[in-house]
């Protein structure tokens, strides 16, 4: 469960979205190393479209269908800033418990989208920065929450439709800040628990680097991997599938 407040997520969407636009506006034709096949224009359009989807879902109180619309040839930075501003207005007009349809069955609230959009903007903001050759560490509290989100929302659960024959109960401890998670990798399921444990593989480091490693935005050298490197690599391979 998240330990950050709704208002903090909205503030992060505000700050990080502004930073993403600033990082992108002078490099729209540059390739994005962390998103193969994309240039910065593709990245900016993607995030703008994601924002539009959350705005429409909340306004319509249903998942918009068909999606996406034919956006036309919109100028990417202008579109992004407009969508970003309307997303923030939506969040500030609502409370975290107001209804909004989401893809997470147990949480159909605007608060879910505030959290998700904070992390969406953080990770793609890093993508925009990397395209121009720089990287600003993520906010510590946001990164710790980001580790929790990717492990519990993106990774944990039933994998029977995408079984992993390489998995056989491997356990990996993930550490970031003052928190730790234990990930158990079974062939058709993944379990995530809180707390430390005696596991043959551990991944740790600064919260920002651990969050970015889980998302595949920094290399192994950016984190501390101890014990079984193979188990840590298996965790990363499952995350690649989970976040596609």
How would you characterize this protein structure?
With 244 residues, this protein is of the alpha+beta class. The chain has 2 domains: 6-136, dinb family like domain (Four Helix Bundle (Hemerythrin (Met), subunit A), Up-down Bundle), CATH 1.20.120.450; 141-242, 2-Layer Sandwich (Nonspecific Lipid-transfer Protein, Chain A), CATH 3.30.1050.10. It is 48% helix and 12% strand. It is built from 7 helices and 6 strands, in the order αααααβββββαβα. The protein starts with 5 loop residues before the first helix and ends with a helix.
Key terms for this structure?
single chain, 244 residues, alpha+beta, Four Helix Bundle (Hemerythrin (Met), subunit A), Nonspecific Lipid-transfer Protein, Chain A, six-stranded mixed sheet, 7 helices, 6 strands, 48% helix
Strand adjacency order, main sheet: 1-4-3-2-5-6
> What is the annotated CATH architecture of the largest domain?
Up-down Bundle
Would you count the extended β strands for me?
6
SSE order, one letter for each helix or strand: HHHHHEEEEEHEH
Structural class: alpha+beta
Mean pLDDT: 96
CATH class of the largest domain equals: Mainly Alpha
Number of helices: 7
- β-strand amount: 5-15%
pLDDT < 50 runs, ≥5 residues: none
What is the count of structural domains? 2
Task: Name the overall outline.
Answer: globular
The main sheet comes to:
6 strands, mixed
CATH topology of the largest domain: Four Helix Bundle (Hemerythrin (Met), subunit A)
User: Distance N terminus to C terminus?
Assistant: 23 Å
Helicity level: 40-55%
């Amino acid at each position: 469960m998240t330990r950050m407040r709704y208002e903090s997520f909205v503030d992060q969407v505000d700050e990080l979205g502004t930073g993403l636009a600033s990082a992108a506006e002078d490099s729209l034709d540059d390739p994005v190393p962390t998103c193969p096949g994309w240039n910065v224009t593709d990245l900016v359009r993607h995030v703008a479209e994601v924002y539009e989807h959350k705005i429409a879902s909340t306004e319509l109180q249903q998942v918009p269908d068909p999606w996406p619309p034919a956006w036309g040839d919109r100028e990417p930075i202008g579109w992004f800033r407009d969508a970003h501003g309307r997303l923030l207005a939506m969040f500030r007009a609502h409370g975290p418990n107001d209804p909004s349809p989401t893809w997470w069955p147990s949480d159909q609230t605007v608060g879910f989208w505030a959290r998700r959009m904070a992390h969406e903007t953080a990770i793609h903001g890093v993508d925009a920065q990397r395209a121009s050759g720089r990287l600003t560490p993520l906010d510590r509290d946001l990164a710790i929450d980001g580790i929790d989100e990717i492990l519990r929302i993106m990774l944990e659960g039933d994998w029977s439709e995408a079984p992993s024959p390489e998995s056989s109960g491997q356990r990996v401890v993930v550490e970031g800040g003052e928190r730790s998670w234990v990930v158990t990798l079974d062939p058709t399921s993944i379990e995530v628990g809180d707390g430390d444990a005696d596991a043959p593989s551990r991944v740790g480091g600064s919260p920002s680097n651990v969050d970015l490693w889980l998302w595949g935005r920094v290399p192994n050298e950016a984190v501390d991997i101890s014990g079984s490197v193979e188990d840590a690599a298996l965790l990363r391979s499952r995350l690649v599938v989970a976040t596609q």
